[in-house]
From TrEMBL:
Belongs to the protein N5-glutamine methyltransferase family. PrmC subfamily. CDD domains: AdoMet_MTases. It comes from Enterovibrio gelatinilyticus. HAMAP family: RF_methyltr_PrmC. Signal peptide: none annotated. Methylates the class 1 translation termination release factors RF1/PrfA and RF2/PrfB on the glutamine residue of the universally conserved GGQ motif. GO terms for biological process: methylation. It holds the Pfam family MTS. It comes from the Bacteria. Its EC number is 2.1.1.297. The gene is prmC. This is Release factor glutamine methyltransferase.
Length: 291
C-alpha cells in the first residue's frame, strides 16, 4: 500500500542512505515516531497502516531536513541519555553514549553518603542530572559559559523532576563558590581545531565552543586540571572525558598537578575516553607551581 508505514519508512531510509546518513533506518523510524507521537513498537505492529496526508507531509519535511545533515536530536528536540529524556538545542552539544561511560565511572567511585559534585561545561545538564538522579544524597552543581545552556539544563532538571541539582553560569571555575567537592566531572571541548571530522556528520551543526579547544584540543582540559585541586576535598576525584588519542597527554596533566590513582578508561568501543584521578594533599602545592 502506497503510504503505509512500512513503505514510507523504506523510501525515507533509502533517501537518507543516499544522503550519507550513517543510520538511515533508525533516523527514519525516530522521525516517524515523532510525527505520530508513538513508540517505535507501533511502527512494527501497525506497519500496514496508512499515513494521513498531514502526517506524510510532516514526515517528509523532517526527512528533508535530515537529508541536509541536521542531527535527528535537533530536529525532534530531545535525546535520551542515561535514564533521562533531555531537551537539546543547537546551543549545546548533543549528549553521546560515550559520556554515559563517564556517568557510570562517577557512580562507581562516589563514596556512600552525602557529598557534592561539580560538572564543568554541563551543556544540557546530561552528566549532572544523571548523577543527581541516581544519588539523591548528593548536591550536584553544573556550570556552563552560555546562559542558554544554563536555562536548558534547568528546564531538563525540572522536566525530569530532579531537585538536588543547581545550575550556574560560569566560565569554568570563575563563578563557582569556594567549596571542597567530592568529585569534579567534565566533558569539555577537546577536538583539535584542525580535525577534519569537524566538517562531517552531526558535529557540523553543533556549537564549536562545545567541541574545539586550542593546543590540539588540550587547552581546556589543562585549565580544568590546574584549577581542580583547589576545589576538591581530600581524596576527591577528577574525571574528564577526552579524545581517543589524548589519554597519554591527559594522564600527564593529571600527574603534573599531583593527582594519584590516575588511569584512563575506555568507552564501549574500546577507545580511551575518560581519565580520572584523586587528589592527594601535596597537589595543592603543585597547582601553585604551575599557575
Ligand atoms: N566526543 C565528541 C565527538 O567526537 C566531542 C565531544 C567534546 O568535544 N566534548 O564528536
Amino acid at each position: 500500500m502506497l503510504n503505509s508505514i512500512e513503505n514510507v519508512l523504506r523510501a525515507a531510509a533509502h533517501l537518507l542512505a543516499e544522503h550519507e546518513s550513517p543510520s538511515p533506518r533508525i533516523d527514519a523510524s525516530v522521525l516517524l515516531c515523532h510525527v505520530l507521537d508513538k513508540p517505535s513498537s507501533y511502527l512494527y505492529t501497525w506497519s500496514d497502516k496508512l499515513l494521513s496526508d498531514e502526517e506524510l507531509a510532516a514526515f517528509n519535511g523532517l526527512i528533508a531536513r535530515r537529508t541536509l545533515g541536521e542531527p535527528v536530536a535537533y530536529i525532534i528536540g530531545y535525546r535520551d541519555f542515561w535514564s533521562l529524556r533531555l531537551n537539546v538545542e543547537p546551543s549545546t552539544l548533543i549528549p553521546r553514549p560515550d559520556t554515559e561511560r563517564l556517568v557510570e565511572l562517577a557512580l562507581e567511585r562516589l563514596p556512600k553518603g552525602e557529598g557534592s559534585v561539580l560538572d564543568l561545561g554541563t551543556g544540557t545538564g546530561a552528566i549532572a542530572l544523571s548523577i543527581a538522579s541516581e544519588r539523591h544524597d548528593l548536591e550536584v552543581t553544573g556550570v556552563d559559559l552560555r546562559p542558554e545552556a544554563v536555562a536548558l539544563a534547568q528546564r531538563n532538571q525540572q522536566e525530569n523532576g530532579i531537585s538536588n541539582a543547581l545550575f550556574l553560569q560560569s566560565s569554568w571555575f570563575d563563578a563557582v563558590p569556594e567549596h571542597a567537592f567530592t568529585m569534579i566531572v567534565s566533558n569539555p571541548p577537546y577536538i583539535d581545531p584542525e580535525d577534519p571530522h569537524l566538517a562531517q556528520g552531526d558535529v557540523r551543526f553543533e556549537p564549536k565552543t562545545a567541541l574545539i579547544a586550542d593546543d590540539h584540543g588540550l587547552a581546556d582540559i589543562r585549565h580544568i586540571c590546574q584549577h581542580s585541586p583547589r576545589y576538591l576535598a581530600q581524596g576527591g576525584w577528577l574525571m574528564i572525558e577526552h579524545g581517543y588519542d589524548q589519554g597519554h597527554a591527559v594522564r600527564a596533566l593529571f600527574l603534573g598537578v599531583g593527582f594519584c590513582d590516575v588511569e584512563t578508561v575506555q568507552d564501549y568501543a574500546g577507545l580511551d575516553r575518560v581519565t580520572l584521578g584523586r587528589i592527594a594533599q601535596s597537589a595543592l602545592t603543585a597547582e601553585a607551581a604551575l599557575t
